[in-house]
C-alpha cells in the first residue's frame, strides 16, 4: 500500500517554501524537505501568496492509502519576520487547535503543533536562513482549511484540543493502517485522563 505524508511534513514543506519566498521573492515549487529518517520528499504547492511582511504557501495533504480524515486537507503556513533574537514562534491559525488540558506534550494554551513537527520546521527555517542570509527569527502560523469541522472526527475534542486539528507526525510518513499510530492516540488519551485525575 502507498505511504503518505503527515500534517507535520506538509506544514514543514509549506514553511520552507514560504520562508524561502520571504527572503528571495520566489517560491520553490516543488519544495523538498528532509524528514527525520532521511527521506527527501518533494511537495507541490497548491497555493502561494507574497505581500509586504509575509509569505504564505499551502500544500494538500496526501495520506497515501491510509483512511486518514485529513487526507486532501489544505495545510497553509504563513511566515512573518520577527526582530533578531525572537526565535521561531508558532501560532494556530484557523483550523488548527489549541491545547486546553494538561497531559499532552505541549503546554496549555499552546497551538496544537506537536514537538517533532516544531523541530522539523525550526530546522528547515535555519537551513533557509543560512542559505539566503536570513536571521531565522520568524512567526509561523499554521492553518488547515475546514480543520475545525474535520477535527470533530478525531480524538481532539476528547483530548481537550479545541478549535481544530493537531499538526502531527514523528517520522513525517503516514503508514497505512498503522497500529502504532492508533496505540499512540490511545496513550495520549490516557495521559490526559491521568493529568485530570481520572485514572
UniProtKB/TrEMBL annotation:
One MF term in the entry's GO annotations:
methyltransferase activity
Superkingdom of the organism of origin: Bacteria
Q: Which GO terms describe its biological process?
A: cobalamin biosynthetic process; methylation
- Signal peptide boundaries: none
**Keyword annotations from UniProtKB, A to Z:** Cobalamin biosynthesis, Methyltransferase, S-adenosyl-L-methionine, Transferase
* SUPFAM superfamilies in the record: CbiD-like
Protein name in UniProt? Cobalt-precorrin-5B (C(1))-methyltransferase
Amino acid at each position: 500500500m502507498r505511504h503518505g505524508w503527515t500534517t507535520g511534513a506538509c506544514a514543514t514543506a509549506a514553511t520552507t517554501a514560504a520562508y524561502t519566498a520571504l527572503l528571495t521573492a520566489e517560491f520553490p515549487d516543488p519544495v523538498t524537505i528532509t524528514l527525520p529518517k532521511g527521506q527527501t520528499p518533494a511537495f507541490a504547492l497548491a497555493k502561494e501568496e507574497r505581500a509586504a511582511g509575509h509569505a504564505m504557501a499551502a500544500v494538500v495533504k496526501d495520506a497515501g492509502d491510509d483512511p486518514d480524515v485529513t487526507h486532501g486537507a489544505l495545510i497553509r503556513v504563513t511566515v512573518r519576520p520577527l526582530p533578531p533574537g525572537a526565535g521561531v514562534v508558532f501560532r494556530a491559525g484557523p483550523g488548527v487547535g489549541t491545547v486546553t488540558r494538561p497531559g499532552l506534550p505541549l503546554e496549555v494554551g499552546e497551538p496544537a503543533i506537536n514537538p517533532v513537527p516544531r523541530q522539523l520546521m525550526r530546522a528547515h527555517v535555519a537551513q533557509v536562513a543560512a542559505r539566503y542570509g536570513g536571521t531565522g527569527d520568524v512567526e509561523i502560523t499554521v492553518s488547515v482549511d475546514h480543520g475545525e469541522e474535520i477535527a470533530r472526527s478525531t480524538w481532539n475534542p476528547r483530548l481537550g484540543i479545541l478549535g481544530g486539528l493537531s499538526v502531527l507526525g514523528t517520522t513525517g510518513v503516514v503508514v497505512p493502517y498503522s497500529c502504532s499510530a492508533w496505540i499512540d492516540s490511545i496513550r495520549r488519551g490516557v495521559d490526559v485522563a491521568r493529568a485530570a485525575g481520572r485514572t
